[in-house]
Specification:
With 565 residues, this protein is of the alpha/beta class. It contains 20 helices and 22 strands.
Length: 565
């Protein structure tokens, strides 16, 4: 009944000329399922802010929900006083439908509230926004993006003055103000042109783009004659916003034989060439593989639409392109950074790396081998990068942060995952090892020989709508009520339920199981997508055995989960 009440309220209050009104009247009044899905809840902050399908409704991304969120955040900032308002907010957007319009609308709301707003002249990568928060010393940041989601989605990421996505404490304060905002009476907007003329909205110039790239390039571990800069490489931005910064970075670093997938160079909100623009999905590399075979590329690289996620494919010893998962790319980066610092004599006395609780523990052992401590957090870079300030206060030097979902943070001043800096370091590593007569594929096999052969598998179930959310909830309840004591013949030796928190990790709806055969797995509903995710890890003395054991564990658990109606 609450959903239908909201539906009728929207029809009553909206202008009949609005495209959103037309969207609503196309719904048959008897289509209670569609009405329920659109209005049963307000979009809420998950792992990375708001995210949902574009359209009319409280459970959709549209000008009303962007306005409600922005007005609430503006009111929250005003409670922090004039100094916070003067520091202002920096706003960015990706190439999706309505991203630019939503970002300009948000800027007008902040301007009307007396809060300075910085905007970019066009789309920019998510990590550049994160960097600018610290660079400009703003109180907050907003990014309009749905990251790697399908074309019919958009989203809204909120950041705070530490350069990180908002912590739970800040998010709660924002939400308290957002919930007070009346959609039809409380949203105040200043036309963008007027706000620009009055200096309440400021457009950032090219010098800020250069500063972001200079900072990334300062992360280089090896340079000049240490690298084979003629190494053949391929990169695709998947029709997102990575093309220009990635190209400038590669040119600055002196790479002479890299190639971009032309069909995917320009931004395209429909992602026509790729469909699902997630570099985690090997299908996203189809055009990259075609170009790679033409130019003999050793390494294929891709970023997602807002250039925060980064994934690769490597040419193996038989000449086939092999997609690496986020853990495997993480192994290469962790090794390259640690090895580089050790060789240069720059390993800090108190070095730290950070990973999520569902990311492989092979990297924990790698860090330990170099005398560096690996810290664990909940998923999401608001948690991974959110640990940086407290670790720095404890005297640690933060060298790297990452998680298995192809996100990597190489700089403590860019407090979100950054596909541009990750791409630079991977390309640099490939050029460095090539100079030594090795490929990244060779290096990965050497790491397995040293630390054991690990198998990783990360399946998920997509369950959309209210029925899907309810089934995911039943799945988690079932597992908690029937905790497995044995899986695929291996005994469960330890169970961590993060629902009430664990050690210094705050509460979250995650279960983690450790087995007596050097395996572990975790179960976690997504905070931003209609998914329940699974993570399976096994270490054995051969790659074949690791895959076999891991597959058996996965089969047992997925059979149990799929039986929950």
């Amino acid at each position: 009944m609450e959903a239908r009440k909201r539906y009728e309220e929207w029809l009553k209050n909206m202008s009949q000329r609005s495209p959103l009104y037309q969207d609503l009247i196309q719904i048959d009044e008897n289509d209670s399922e569609d009405i329920e899905d659109r209005f049963y809840q307000y979009l809420s902050f998950g792992t990375a802010g708001l995210r949902g399908k574009i359209g009319a409704g409280t459970n959709r991304m549209n000008f009303y929900m962007v306005g409600k969120a922005t007005q609430g955040i503006a009111n929250f900032i005003k409670k922090h006083g004039q100094e916070a308002m003067d520091r202002g907010v920096v706003i960015a957007h990706d190439p999706r439908h309505f991203s630019k319009e939503f970002s300009q609308f948000a800027a007008g709301i902040f301007a009307a509230a007396g809060i300075k707003a910085y905007i970019f002249p066009d789309l920019r990568p998510t990590p550049e926004l994160a960097y600018m928060i610290l660079k400009l010393h703003t109180i907050s940041g907003i990014n309009i993006t749905a990251s790697h989601n399908p074309k019919n989605y958009n989203g809204y990421k909120a950041y705070w003055e530490d350069g990180c996505q908002v912590s739970s404490k800040i998010a709660d304060g924002m939400l308290e103000e957002i919930e007070k905002v009346d959609l039809w009476a409380d949203i105040n907007y200043m036309p963008l042109q007027l706000a620009l003329e009055e200096g309440k909205v400021i457009v950032l110039g090219d010098e800020y783009d250069r500063d972001y790239l200079y900072h990334i390039e300062s992360l280089a571990i090896h340079e000049g004659d240490e690298l084979d800069l003629d190494i053949p490489l391929v990169y695709t931005p998947l029709n997102g916003c990575g093309a220009i910064p990635f190209a400038r970075m590669m040119e600055d670093r002196g790479f002479t034989n890299w190639h971009i997938v032309e069909e995917q160079r320009e931004p395209d909100p429909d992602f026509t060439t790729v469909g699902y623009p997630n570099p985690e999905d090997p299908k996203a590399f189809r055009l990259s593989e075609e170009l790679g075979r033409k130019v003999g590329a050793e390494l294929l690289m891709a970023t997602d639409p807002d250039a925060d996620r980064f994934a690769i494919e490597l040419k193996d010893d038989e000449g086939n392109y092999i997609p690496l998962n986020g853990n495997q790319t993480g192994y290469l980066l962790v090794n390259y950074i640690l090895e580089g610092h050790k060789d240069a004599g720059t390993l800090p006395e108190k070095g730290a790396m950070i990973k999520s609780i569902v990311t492989s523990t092979m990297s924990t052992e790698m860090a330990k081998a170099y005398g560096v401590e690996m810290f664990e957090t909940l998923t999401g870079f608001k948690n991974i990068c959110g640990r940086i300030p407290s670790l720095q206060k404890e005297g640690y030097t933060c060298l790297f942060g990452y998680e298995e979902s192809v996100g990597y943070a190489a700089s403590p001043l860019i407090r979100d995952k950054d596909g541009i800096s990750a791409g630079m370091l991977v390309a640099e590593a490939a050029a460095y090892y090539r100079k030594q007569g090795k490929t990244l594929w060779n290096v990965l096999q050497e790491l397995y020989q040293k630390y054991g052969y690990w198998a990783e598998d990360e399946p998920n179930l997509i369950l959309e709508g209210i029925a899907g959310a309810q089934r995911i909830s039943r799945m988690m309840t079932y597992v908690r009520n029937h905790l497995p004591q044995e899986v695929a013949g291996a005994r469960v030796t330890k169970i961590i339920d993060y629902r009430e928190g664990f050690e210094d990790i705050p509460p979250s709806n995650v279960l983690r199981f450790f087995l007596d055969n050097d395996s572990w797995f975790a179960i976690r509903p997504s905070g931003t997508e209609p998914k329940i995710k699974f993570y399976f890890y096994t270490r054995q003395d051969s790659a074949e055995k690791a895959k076999e054991v891991n597959a058996a564990i996965k089969a047992d658990i997925m059979e149990m989960i799929n039986a929950v109606e």
